[in-house]
Amino acid sequence: MSARTVSTRRTATAVAGALLATGALLSVSACGSGQISQTANQVAAVNGANQTFVDQKITLSDVHVLAPVSGGQGRLAFVLTNLNPLQGDRLTSITDEKSRRATISGDTTLAASGSLYGTAPTGSNSAAPGVTRLTVTVPVDSTWRPGLTNKLWFHLEKAGSLPIDVPIDAGAAPASAAGITVTGGEHGGDHGEGSGH
């Protein structure tokens, strides 16, 4: 074997090694940059479901059943917002997949550009300024478990029936429901009875 052949072989091996190393480096850096950009765009986790019904100009935010659940009934937290600045609406009922109706107490009129708030968690101020608070309970059976969702329909007079997949709260802090302020300490009976303006 000539010296020239050995030299050529060593050069080819060195070039191939360099190309493999460069490819591996590019692969790792591309993978890492992809992970960073995906993480940077993630939205912070919240307890409830969110849905915007563009055609009906309605938004449902932070919809979830509050913990604890007792007696086959769960208290429903939500923010129902009317994005229409000219026309009001009214929440007529809330039903589940078995057509069972929620119990709703309070004024269900949804003003133009206004919002309705569901039940406040225990330990929160259910009569926060500027908040139209309802007391809402829904039937909860064995199909409601933390980590799963159940479909509810919000029925409005003008916007129609709006479906949303609703989770059950695993027992997070009271401030998880929008439209409330934490008062410190537990107030067992303070579930926001009445319309709570």
Oligomer: single chain
Distance between the termini: 95 Å
CATH fold name of one domain, please? Answer: Immunoglobulin-like
Number of helices, counting only DSSP H or I runs of 4 residues or more: 1
Mean pLDDT: 75
Please give the CATH class of one domain.
Mainly Beta
Shape: globular
Q: How helix-rich are the residues, as a percent range?
A: 10-25%
Strand coverage percent: 25-35%
CATH homologous superfamily (4th level) name of one domain: PCu(A)C copper chaperone
Radius of gyration: 27 Å
Keywords: Signal
Pfam family, one: PCuAC
Protein name: Copper chaperone PCu(A)C
InterPro entries: LpqE-like (IPR007410)
What can you see in these coordinates?
The protein has 197 residues and is an alpha+beta fold. It is 19% helix and 32% strand. The chain has a domain at 49-168: Immunoglobulin-like. The strands form three sheets. Strands 1, 2, 3, 5, 7 and 9 form a six-stranded antiparallel beta sheet that branches. Strands 6-4-10-11 form a four-stranded antiparallel beta sheet, with no helix packed on it.
